[in-house]
Amino acid sequence: IGLMQSAVAVDGNQIIVQTAEADAQIEIYNLSGTCIYRGTEKVISISERGVYIVKAITYDNEYTQKIISK
User: Fold this and answer.
1) What predicted TM-score, i.e. pTM, was given to this entire model?
2) 69: confidence class by pLDDT, cuts 50, 70, 90
């Protein structure tokens, strides 16, 4: 099992997820643990500033990163 190559960035009110795997499932959670997004889009608009947990998941790997939207 190899490591999944991923990067997460914030640009204004958007979270941008870059993954080597085109079919990666993206999940975004707020600090309350509520899933605010689940899908395969790589650019996700968020409505509020704050701290989020972003997960990129494939069938054999998972990448998790905490991001701050200012």
Assistant:
1) 0.85
2) confident
